[in-house]
Amino acid sequence: MIADEPGTDALTARSSRVVAARKLQRRRARDKAGQFLAEGPQAVREAIAAGAAVDLFHTLDADVRHTELVDAATAAGVYVHPVTDDALASLAETVTPQGLVAVCKFLDQRLPEEAKLVAVLDGITDPGNAGTILRAADAAGADCVVFGTDSVDPYNGKCVRASAGSLFHLPVIRGGDTAELLDVFDHAQILAASTGGADLFELAANGELNGPTVWLFGSEAHGLAGSTAALAHRKVGVPIWGEAESLNLAVAAGVCLYASASSQRRLRS
């Protein structure tokens, strides 16, 4: 075990190490420390694999259930700390914690200039939707995800959990003005996801999704701001063929990203 405090006694909620980590639940503290929390075995596993984990807190029960993760963290040089159930609960943001929380360093990411598929989040403040879009983008093979103007922090705890580890798989650009960030992608078409836009599947059938594409996604309640939507070459919508009023934002984003990814893969094959 690598530890910064002598002995193997479980740390309590009042331990200085636990108190310092708990502050990372707030964005201001995350920005100051350049660190964030990843909760649960999936996120912790990916954090260790990416070399992002700095500290790992685990309950004694989690050490038994997830021995391979604790061992992997130790082998990777992560500081590993057994903690009481109350201490772990103070670090976790879920109702039923799974006994593992890692402190991770911010990921050093850059915009890939020759990206073929990009998701840009603009004004999306719901961390669950944002994290799920990040997960969908990863699954579709996107080159990066951009959290643009007025979007939630990708290092928000709920967003990290919703990404199910995808935060550690591809470049995630945090903050900045959406319009300025889009300047990097002048080689790509920019499509704004919008109800009432051109039929997504007709575009795919006509080969209009074959080239490099940047997707703009706005908030579920209000959509894209007019100034952001104006940056797009075209508005595109997912058709509703049943009786549903609409699609959840993350579901619609996943459909758009997969339509583009499928078209691009067919072109390469």
From TrEMBL:
Could you state one GO cellular component term attached to this entry? cytoplasm
Q: Which UniProt keywords apply?
A: Methyltransferase, Transferase
Q: Which GO terms describe its molecular function?
A: RNA binding; RNA methyltransferase activity
Task: Name the species this protein comes from.
Answer: Glycomyces buryatensis
The record, for InterPro entries, names:
Alpha/beta_knot_MTases (IPR029028), MRM3-like_sub_bind (IPR053888), Ribosomal_eL30-like_sf (IPR029064), rRNA_Methyltransferase (IPR051259), SpoU_MeTrfase (IPR001537), SpoU_subst-bd (IPR013123), tRNA_m1G_MTases_N (IPR029026)
Q: Which biological processes are named by the entry's GO terms?
A: methylation; RNA processing
What protein does this entry describe?
A: RNA methyltransferase
Please tell me whether the keyword Methyltransferase is annotated for this protein: yes
Report the residue ranges that make up the RNA 2-O ribose methyltransferase substrate binding domain in this protein. Answer: 37-110
PANTHER family the UniProt entry points to: RRNA METHYLTRANSFERASE 3, RRNA METHYLTRANSFERASE 3, MITOCHONDRIAL
Query: Could you confirm whether the keyword Transferase appears in this record?
Result: yes
Would you identify the family this protein belongs to, as annotated? Answer: Belongs to the class IV-like SAM-binding methyltransferase superfamily. RNA methyltransferase TrmH family.
Concerning Pfam families, the annotation shows: MRM3-like_sub_bind, SpoU_methylase
Matches recorded under CDD domains: SpoU-like_rRNA-MTase (cd18095)
